C-alpha cells in the first residue's frame, strides 16, 4: 500500500491460520485491529478470501449500472439520505454519482434492485453482486468479533450483532478538468455502524490523521474498514473503562481519472 506521508497507516493481513477464534494468532490479530481502530478509526484489511475475479466482475458490472438511462436510475429512491440514487449536484458534488441498495445480503433485495435497473433482468449482475456483498459481510462480522473479543466482551457479541442490515453504495467519481484536483465527496465520518470501502485501483480515498491527509492506494486484495459512530458508542457503553475507538474523517480527491467505488455500510 502506498501513502503520500511518513505516517505508517495500518495494513492488517487476515491469514486463514489466524482466523480460528481463541488461538494465539486470533488474539494477536484482535489486538492489531483494536489498536488500528483506536488510533486511526480505520485500517486496510488484506483479505484474499474474496477473489480477484469476483471483485473485477463487480466493477465491470458497475460500469453497466452507470450507463443505465437516468429515468431508470431515478427509480432507485429511499426516504433516507444516500440510500437511493444521487446524481451530480451542488449539494453533494458535481463529480459524484451514487446508487443505494438496502438489505444487500438478501438475494430478493438484490433481484428487486436489478429489475428496477434492467426490467428484462440481468442475472450476472444479480448473482455477482450478491456473492460480493455476502463475502464482504463475512469480513465485516469477523472484524466486529475481533473488536468485541479484544475488549473481552465475547459473551455480549449477540447483543451487538442483532438486527443489522447492509447497505451497498455504488459510487462513481468523475474526473475533473485536466490538471485540476477536486473533491469527489466532502470530508466526513460515517453514520452507520461500520463501513467497508472497495475501489477499482484508482487512488482517491484520503484519511485525515492528526490534521494531515494521507492518500490510500488499496491493493487488489484489500479493503478499507471504517469505524462508524454507533460502533464507537457500542464499545464505549460495553467497555467504558477502555480507550474509545476513533471516528475517521475521509474524503475522495480526484485527479485525471474517474473512480469507481463500492461502499458497504452496516446499519444498526
TrEMBL record:
InterPro entries: DIOX_N, IPNS-like_FE2OG_OXY, IPNS-like_sf, Iron_ascorbate_oxido_reductase. Keywords: Iron, Metal-binding. One of its GO terms (molecular function) is metal ion binding. Residues 10-88 form the Non-haem dioxygenase N-terminal domain. Pfam families: 2OG-FeII_Oxy, DIOX_N. Residues 171-231 form the Isopenicillin N synthase-like Fe(2+) 2OG dioxygenase domain. SUPFAM superfamilies: Clavaminate synthase-like. This is Fe2OG dioxygenase domain-containing protein.
Amino acid at each position: 500500500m502506498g501513502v503520500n506521508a511518513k505516517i505508517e497507516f495500518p495494513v492488517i493481513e487476515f491469514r486463514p491460520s489466524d482466523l480460528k477464534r481463541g488461538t494465539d494468532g486470533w488474539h494477536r490479530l484482535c489486538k492489531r485491529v483494536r489498536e488500528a481502530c483506536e488510533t486511526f478509526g480505520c485500517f486496510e484489511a488484506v483479505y484474499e478470501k474474496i477473489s480477484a475475479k469476483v471483485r473485477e466482475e463487480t466493477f465491470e458490472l458497475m460500469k453497466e449500472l452507470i450507463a443505465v438511462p437516468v429515468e431508470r436510475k431515478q427509480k432507485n429512491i429511499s426516504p433516507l439520505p444516500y440510500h437511493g440514487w444521487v446524481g451530480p449536484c451542488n449539494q453533494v458534488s458535481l463529480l459524484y454519482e451514487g446508487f443505494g441498495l438496502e438489505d444487500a445480503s438478501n438475494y430478493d433485495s438484490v433481484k428487486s434492485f436489478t429489475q428496477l435497473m434492467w426490467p428484462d433482468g440481468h442475472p450476472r449482475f444479480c448473482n455477482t453482486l450478491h456473492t460480493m456483498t455476502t463475502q464482504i459481510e463475512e469480513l465485516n462480522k469477523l472484524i466486529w468479533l475481533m473488536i468485541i473479543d479484544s475488549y473481552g466482551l465475547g459473551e455480549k457479541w449477540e447483543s451487538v450483532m442483532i438486527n443489522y442490515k447492509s447497505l451497498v453504495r455504488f459510487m462513481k467519481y468523475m474526473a475533473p478538468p485536466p490538471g485540476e484536483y477536486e473533491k469527489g465527496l466532502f470530508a466526513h465520518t460515517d453514520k452507520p455502524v461500520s463501513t467497508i470501502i472497495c475501489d477499482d485501483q484508482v487512488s482517491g480515498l484520503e484519511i485525515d490523521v492528526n490534521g494531515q491527509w494521507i492518500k490510500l492506494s488499496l491493493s487488489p486484495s484489500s479493503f478499507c474498514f471504517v469505524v462508524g459512530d454507533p460502533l464507537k458508542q457500542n464499545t464505549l457503553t460495553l467497555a467504558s473503562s477502555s480507550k474509545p475507538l476513533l471516528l475517521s474523517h475521509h474524503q475522495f480527491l480526484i485527479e485525471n481519472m474517474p473512480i469507481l467505488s463500492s461502499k458497504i455500510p452496516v446499519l444498526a
